[in-house]
TrEMBL record:
It comes from the Bacteria. NCBIfam families: upstrm_HI1419. It comes from Marinospirillum celere. This is Putative addiction module killer protein. SUPFAM superfamilies: RelE-like. InterPro entries: HigB-like, RelE/ParE_toxin_dom_sf, TypeIITA-like_toxin_pred. The lineage of its organism: Bacteria, Pseudomonadati, Pseudomonadota, Gammaproteobacteria, Oceanospirillales. Pfam families: Gp49.
Length: 98
């Protein structure tokens, strides 16, 4: 699979959030999971709705990577770390897809 990242108004939300994470262990686990996803092994993930998927990473606060599939491409949409804002985060990501 080919990994791409969503660009919104010249910004890359996934990269912006990843750069803000201070926990080096969490960053390493997130990157490792992205590599597994790229090789076709998503591990702990869930199909949500409208072609949106959630990759669950159990480290620190419990990170989530939201992504979608377009042919042979996986498009990373967002990286979030709070279960409290999950509903709002999913709505935001879905608005980017439409």
């Amino acid at each position: 699979m080919i990994i791409k990242k969503l660009v919104v108004e010249g910004r890359v939300p996934f990269d912006e959030r990843l750069k803000k994470i201070k926990d080096a262990r969490a960053v390493a686990r997130i990157i490792a999971r992205i590599r597994r996803l790229e090789s076709g092994n998503p591990g702990d993930h869930k199909a949500l709705s409208d072609g949106l998927y959630e990759l669950r990473i159990d480290v620190g606060t419990g990170w989530r990577v939201y992504y979608t599939k377009r042919g042979d491409q996986l498009i990373l949409l967002a990286l979030v770390g709070s279960k409290k804002t999950q509903t709002k985060d999913i709505k935001q990501v879905l608005s980017w897809l439409n």
